[in-house]
Write a structure and sequence with these properties.
Elements lengths: L1 E2 L7 E9 H13 L4 E10 L4 E10 L2 H15 L4 E13 L2 H7 L5 E4 L6
Antiparallel strand pairs: 1-6, 2-5, 2-6, 3-4, 3-5
Amino acid sequence: MTKFEVGPGDVLRAVQATSVQDAEALLNYFAGRGLVFVFEVGVRKADPETELSLNAKFTVSGAEARNRALRLLRAVQDVSPAVDAVFRFKQPAAVDEDMVQRFKGRPLKYEVEVEEEC
């Protein structure tokens, strides 16, 4: 299920950001918490001076992979501050109060697990 706000007790499968700034903040936050995730980023920009089409995918499980993903985001930011960035967790992550505060005010989309009623 897709949501635009989460609270304690929600279980995240993925988080989507649309700006380099938000993607960089989430990348650092999730890696700092020791979460393992697949980071997918896509950028498309075409204007008379610049044409850019990029799709990249990183499995982030440590500092080296996080740093590679950060370098890519920073390089892309000069051309386009808008991206399609998705963080897909290897193991679903339970939302706690720290996450709620960290996400507050950011235009993010969340894919959460929903318990199905029988």
